[in-house]
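> @MW can you paste both from yesterday?
MW: sure, first one:
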Amino acid sequence: MEHAFATAQPARGFTLKQLLVVDALTCFVFGLLLVAAAAPLAALLGLPQSLLFFAGVALVPCAGLMALAAKTLAKALVAIVIAGNTAWVIGSVAVVLMFEVTTLGLGFIVAQAAAVLTLAVLEWRARGQVY
């Protein structure tokens, strides 16, 4: 059963549910990519293979949590997703500072961090649909 707040449109034109679904799908696909291609990505990006692999492994259950948040729109889950996305962006900055990444690696990290930050901000703005 759909709740009224699940279909209300925030300023950007996306519902919280839609944002969380996009977040879950991109997180899952990105996680699978990192797990499956950790070795070639490590060489291209200038990052340790183990870092990429285990980041990918961690993203898969995170995607499940995001999907559950999208399904239930539970306040606590939404807050955890937003906090997790924020932590991912901070972690991305730390990775750039800790490793001598390639130019491609820097672009990759900045691009994915910007995408995650955008989702976090949009989810934060749309959280009023459940708060």
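MW: second:
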Amino acid sequence: RGATIRANTPVRAITPVPDGAEVHTDAGTFHARRVVVTSGAWSNQVLREAGISLPLTVTQEQVTYFQPRQLRDFAPERFPIWIWHGGARDCFYGFPIHGEVAIKAGQDVGGDVVTADTRPFEVNPRSRADLQRFMDTYIPGGAGPELYTKTCLYTLTPDRDFIIDTLPEHPQIAVAIGAGHAFQFASLIGQILSQLALEGEAAYPLDTFQLDRPALTDPNFPASFMV
């Protein structure tokens, strides 16, 4: 049926109405029978009028692209995607050469707590130095020179699991939050959200990712962001 993309159009709120929902934007208000919300760090802001307030932590993370000395050693067939856990808070990850003439590496949940609207965008020198020390120690052949470093946002739930559900009081509104590790599951999450939007239910069990789980309802739930 096609779609209309409203680029650079901030959504200010989503309001449930008897026959669907209204999406309030800077370009006007749009009505839909069903709405899928994947607004990450802005989720609480846009869902406030639907009575939703989630215990989310937003952090600014960063990744660095390194140019290896020997490119062939870091081709996908010779250098796999990797994740390294070294302690309670030390987790680094990386990818082979793909797209750029460089490998990509970063620290998981190594950044500072921010808000979506006030994040600084600048590279954090402390996090950059931590990553460089790790690369120099464990992957020295891929430790530089740096091509560039860029930042992104994580929107973290206390248990680091996804949120994939419809709102309890307003099932016409579906919401998904990836908790900083959903990209590799994007095709499946997209399929589930399309099922929720078109059929009202998913063909997959979603108990672990629902809004009524203790991590989201118990204010004393101990947050743990390592996966």
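> thanks! The first helix runs from residue 43 to 47.
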